[in-house]
Structure formats: C-alpha cells, structure tokens
Specification:
This protein has about 325 residues and is of the alpha+beta class. The protein contains 9 helices and 15 strands. A hairpin with a 2-residue loop joins strand 11 and strand 12. It binds flavin mononucleotide. The site of flavin mononucleotide has 17 residues, from strand 3 and strand 5.
Length: about 325
C-alpha cells in the first residue's frame, strides 16, 4: 500500500474507533466437527420482529469457510471481566476453546459461559461487504444476565460507567459547595467506611493508630520503629516506641531491641489472628459500601483514587507484597 493509502486507512480505522461498541465472540462448528470462533465488534441489531442481528467477518479470516458453510452461529456479548477471552479469540491459530467449559446450541454450536448476553442464530443471509462478508442471523433463542459489558473504544478495551442523569435545574450553578468538593467526599466516605470497623477495633481494644501498625505488619512483618513511622507518616499518626510497647503489652506484637528507633517489631500469633479478623471485617465493610456500584464503577473509582494517591504522595515508601495468609 502506498504511504498515502496507508495513512488514509489508518485515519479511517481511528475514525471508526470513535464509535464505542461492545465486544462479542461469534462461534460455530465446522463440517469436520471442530469448534470455531473469533472476537468481533462489528455486531449490531437489525430487526426486532422478526428478531435479527448482523456481524461482519474479514475475508482473510481463517474461520471464513466454516462460517460460510454453517447453518447456525452464536454471538456472545462479553462481560467486563472477559477481556482475556476476547484476546484469546482475537489471536489467529491459538487453541481458542481449550479448557473452556462449553454448552451446546443448535448444530452443536459451542456456547460460552459468563457472558452479558448470548444470541443463538440461524444463518439467514450473507452479503458482500468489500473485504468482509456480512452475516445476518435470525435469532432462534437468546439469554442475558446483568453482568456489565466489556466495551471497545478507540482501539482499547473500556468499561461502561452509567452517566448521572442531568439535573432538571442544570442551568443553575451548584449552590452547595461541599456536594462536589473532593476533600469533603473523600473525607466523609473514609470516616463513614471506618464507622463499622471502629466497633471491631474497640472489641480488640485497639486504637486506630495501633490498627494501622498491625495492618502494616500483617502485610510485611518484622519492621523497625523508624520504618513503621515512615510508612505511616502520610496518616498524620506518629509511630513511637511507646505505641509499639502498648501493642506488646496487649500481646499483639513482640519488640526486639532497646528503646530506640531501630528496635524491631514482629506480630505475635494473637496479633496475626487479629489482623486476619480485622482485614476480613474491613473487606466486609468495603463490600457493603460497594454494593450499589457496578463492577465498572467500582474499578473506575479505585483507579481514580490510585491516581489521587499518586498525585498527592508525600513520598511514602511502597509496601512489599502481603504476607497475611502465609
Ligand atoms: C475488539 C476486536 C474486534 C474485532 N472485530 C472483528 C470483526 O468484527 N470481524 C472480523 O473479521 N475480525 C474482527 N476482529 C479480529 C479477529 O478477532 C481476529 O482477526 C481473529 O484472529 C480472526 O480469527 P481467525 O483468523 O481464526 O478466524 C476483532 C478483533 C478485536 C480485538
């Protein structure tokens, strides 16, 4: 292809990428009884009555002869957590179906599990479409779940986050400053999330500062007083020898060494058990707080929080990998 045509093709592709789509895997079975499938985002609805859908297949795809001959195919609308499956079915010549737990549709067409929706189709029409063949399927049966969909946009996988409805009085500026004030939102969410955990801490006789130390030791045991102080500096709480001595007195930790910043501290068995219990309680509080968020919203929220943590990081050292359950 000449530079000009290549540039044109690239720009055409990126213009098409502006159209956000879902991601599907289309499957069928060939005349030799082999399972065939590929990732396709050219899927679309065609007709409601009778129910019909379409998708297009590149003429150079290995699966073309199988789809041309097949009386049936199935379209699987992928869920947000099925990106790996999408990659697998977009890779030529890979063992696409190996290890998958399949169901079977008409003509033994392989059906994948865990999708947002599935359409089992009879091949109704085929149309010429340039370097693609357009397949129109008459939908014979379908099912769907409330799993959030995987999205493809601008050549990348994306998540669908629902927009908030536009308020009726959107012309008016927001009169309540605090409603959208990030520090207020983060602060309030953090304190409210901690309310239930605080009750669990009280049951163990632990202060928040003591809990912070225990949770760090749960992730990475055997630290000096000075290291703990540096790791927790961003919380505004200071880790002192006295704080650690109070954990030792309560049986949660052992202090090794004299009264200096290099004294080392390790969790006791009681300390480790308390950490595991409290981490489970924190996880339950998190699940409760997230229960009305979709998977996509929760992931986007965490990504945004990580970005804020990065931007505001005063230089806290990174933590090694957790050792809770070793
Ligand atoms: C998100 C995404 C969407 C795709 N959509 C299509 C499509 O609509 N039609 C198509 O022919 N190929 C599409 N492809 C490329 C095929 O999945 C890929 O070429 C696959 O390897 C073809 O398999 P085959 O050669 O074994 O038939 C897409 C790939 C990705 C990652």
């Amino acid at each position: 292809m000449s530079d000009d045509r290549e540039g044109h093709a690239r720009r055409f592709r990126s213009a098409l990428g502006a159209f956000a789509t879902g991601v599907t895997i289309v499957t069928t079975r060939d005349e030799q009884g082999r399972d065939i499938g590929l990732t396709a985002n050219s899927f679309n609805s065609v007709s409601l009555d009778p129910p019909m859908v379409l998708w297009s297949l590149a003429k150079n795809a290995r699966s073309l002869p199988a789809f041309l001959a097949a009386p049936h195919f199935a379209v699987h609308v992928l869920a947000a957590d099925q990106e790996e499956l999408s990659l697998r079915f977009a890779t030529r010549g890979s063992e696409k179906f190996s290890g998958l737990d399949l169901e079977r549709g008409p003509s033994q067409v392989p059906l994948l599990r865990g999708c947002s929706a599935r359409f089992q189709c009879r091949t109704a029409f085929r149309h010429e479409g340039g370097d693609h063949v357009i397949f129109v399927g008459a939908v014979e049966s379908f099912d769907h779940s409330d799993r959030q969909p995987l999205v493809f946009h601008g050549g990348r996988y994306a998540l669908a986050v629902q927009k908030e409805p536009v308020p009726l009085d959107s012309a008016e500026p927001d009169s309540s400053f605090s409603q959208d004030f990030l520090i207020y939102l983060l602060g309030r969410a953090r304190f409210q999330l901690f309310l239930s955990l605080r009750r669990d801490l009280e049951q163990h006789g632990l202060s928040e500062a003591q809990w912070f130390v225990l949770s760090i030791l749960g992730v990475s045991d055997d630290r000096t007083v000075a290291e703990l102080d540096r790791l927790l500096w961003y919380t505004g709480q200071r880790v002192t020898y006295e704080l650690l001595a109070s954990l030792t007195a309560a049986g949660f930790a052992d202090l090794h060494g004299s009264y200096d910043p290099n004294a080392r501290v390790t969790l006791t068995g009681t300390g480790r058990r308390a950490v595991i219990e409290l981490v489970a309680a924190a996880k339950a509080a998190e699940d409760h707080a997230e229960r009305n968020l979709g998977t996509a919203e929760a992931r986007v929220l965490k990504r945004a929080l990580r970005a804020i943590i990065r931007e505001t990081d005063p230089g806290a050292p990174p933590l090694p990998n957790p050792t809770y359950f070793e």
